[in-house]
Design a protein that fits this description.
heterodimer, A: mainly alpha, Rna Polymerase Sigma Factor, Chain: A, 2 domains, B: mainly alpha
Chain lengths: ~180, ~90
């Protein structure tokens, strides 16, 4: 079996979005997710000597991140009181009698199944993005996920608007076929 | 000289309009040209369908996340610092 090697210089560019997406659907807080991803990269750097080369870089980093997410929940729930679920229903007399209906499960709200499906969608998209050439992926991400306008991206990458649309076209074609193979 | 507007466009131009319309950047005229092209071009109909499907997936903002470029640059700077310490 081919042995995998670590190259920390490319970690941020290659894996930060994938790890970030993986984290944010689990902790539901942008700042915490950013911190956990940063801690994961640093921990990866410190434990590089323990890497046996049996798994790919990304799998190895994800396994570190999983521990970080568990630690995060352990830390926030360490105080027993914090783990309690409190119902803070207001004592407004006008809404008396309505509380039961208000607390009933919303059939249109997301459930565990759709959440899992959607978190997998995020990972599948990042998986396909990682297969694109670096510049193409960066431009596609800025335009489609971060919603930057055409002019800003053109200035940043020093390209013309027709160049940008050619790159977007190629990226979209590649992404559509990749998603068709992995998702639809 | 009077400017000539050609409402019949080739496939590459139609796909360009289709890409632009995914980001709501296509002009009214471009949208009309694309619609006319899609009436008779099967290949572009397929492309347009795939493209809209991809847009729908990508617009699932609650689940498709990425770090902002500036956040990534900050992280990269911090990481490089840590990396040089570890060398």
């Amino acid at each position: 079996m081919a042995q995998h090697e670590l190259d920390p210089n490319g970690w941020i560019k290659k894996y930060s979005d994938y790890l970030f997406n993986f984290t944010i659907v689990r902790v539901d807080d942008r700042e915490i997710a950013k911190d956990l991803v940063q801690e994961t990269f640093f921990a990866g750097l410190r434990s590089m000597k323990n890497f046996k080369g049996e798994a790919s870089e990304r799998t190895w980093l994800i396994s570190i991140l999983k521990r970080k997410v568990i630690d995060h929940y352990r830390k926030t729930n360490s105080n027993k009181g914090k783990a309690e679920v409190r119902m803070s229903y207001n004592s407004d007399t006008e809404s008396e009698g309505d509380w039961l209906e208000e607390r009933i499960a919303d059939p249109y709200a997301s459930n565990a199944e759709t959440d899992i499906e959607n978190s997998e969608l995020g990972l599948a998209i990042h998986d396909c993005l990682s297969k694109l050439p670096e510049k193409q992926a960066a431009i596609f991400k800025m335009k489609t996920i971060e919603n930057y306008d055409t002019e800003t991206i053109c200035n940043r990458f020093d390209i013309t608007s027709s160049n940008l649309w050619v790159i977007i076209h190629r990226a979209r074609t590649a992404m559509a076929s990749c998603m068709e193979a992995n998702w639809f | 000289m009077k400017k000539k507007y050609n409402i019949f466009i080739p496939c590459d131009a139609a796909q360009h309009c289709c890409d632009k319309s995914q980001y709501k950047e296509a002009s009214f005229l471009e949208k009309i040209k694309l619609s006319i092209h899609l009436i008779f071009c099967k290949a572009c109909q397929g492309y347009s369908k795939k493209n809209s499907k991809l847009t729908k997936l990508m617009n699932n903002k609650s689940q498709v996340h990425a770090m902002k470029s500036i956040e990534k640059e900050n992280l990269e700077a911090l990481f490089q610092k840590e990396l040089s310490k570890n060398k």
